[in-house]
Amino acid sequence: MLATLYAKALDAERQRPILGDVWARDAVASIDYDWTKTTITDRTSPSVTTRSLHFDIWARQFLACHDRAVVLHLGAGLDSRVYRLDPGPGIEWYDVDYPSIMELREQIYPSRPHYHRIAASVTDPGWLDQIPADRPVLALGEGLTMYLTESDGIALLRRIVAHFPSGELQFDAFNRFGIRSQWVNSVVRRSGSTLHWGIDGPGEIVAAVPGARLLAWVSPFESESFRDVSREYRVMARVMSWVPALKTMAQYHRYTF
Ligand SMILES: C[S@@+](CC[C@H](N)C(=O)[O-])C[C@H]1O[C@@H](n2cnc3c(N)ncnc32)[C@H](O)[C@@H]1O
Question: Which residues form the signal peptide (predicted)?
Fold first, then answer.
């Protein structure tokens, strides 16, 4: 989550930012850390910022249709989405991540009305009990699913669908090829993380999560957030799109229930 935060901070310094996350910029400035350890550079930052912009767009669409709802921002890390989207007073927003991350968040970001921090593993079945179950939910997990095991991830999605009357599930995923080749991902390698869950298509989610219906399944290269990337990035995307396993190595999923 330091890597994604740093990517957003570098982007915010650009003349023409993709995401323009000034909260990330200020957060990075306030943390004494050798950010080069993340291996993120200005050149590679769009791999993060286009994804964050994509989920900001989808989340905004949900919020535009629901003025009274719950947002579960799963594996929120140090992401400033609640400040970027600035939801209205009818939205109860919950950032969920491990206790150590939540402690750090508390030091970096101000509190705000209708905003809650949940210090827990998303795979812990207990924390959902404290969330109001009487309104629609947006459950959004960016950069999360690959860190979960398949059984934990599916159990989490099922619990959310069972808890709320209706809502949306929005998350990105790697395909199995992306999981198998995780050793080429320098950010993952340097962080010491291990990736587990690969998803090869939305049929796997629809089959495993009763009630979930597909709204969209998008390659990052087809996302409108990719519009403003450099020519170099566009050429790389075109080449990767010729190979199906590379085209869907990363995917954006959106379901309704
Ligand atoms: C790659 S970071 C993404 C952070 C943020 N969503 C973003 O896009 O900047 C992955 C995040 O998922 C969190 N995470 C991974 N497994 C988790 C779990 N079981 N429960 C809660 N958070 C988890 C990590 O702590 C980390 O903050």
Answer: none
- Pocket lining: 172 vs ligand 1, CB cutoff 6 Å: no
Q: Is 147 in the pocket of ligand 1 (CB under 6 A)?
A: yes
Whether 123 lines ligand 1, by a CB cut-off of 6 Å, is: yes
Q: Convert 54-75 to b/e letters by CB count within 10 Å (16 or more is b).
A: bbbebbeebbeebeebbbbbbb
Q: What pLDDT shows up at residue 186?
A: 82
- Which residues on neighbouring strands pair with residue 228, listed in sequence order? none
Count the helix, strand and coil residues of the chain and give each as a percent rounded to the nearest 5: 45, 20, 35
CA of 153 to the centre of ligand 1 (A): 13
**Measured between alpha carbons, how far is 176 from 172 in angstroms, rounded to an integer?**
13
Q: What is the 133 CA–ligand 1 centroid distance (Å)? A: 24
- Residue 185 has what pLDDT? 84
With bands split at pLDDT 50, 70 and 90, how would you rate the model's confidence at 183?
confident
Structure tokens at 191: 């962080």
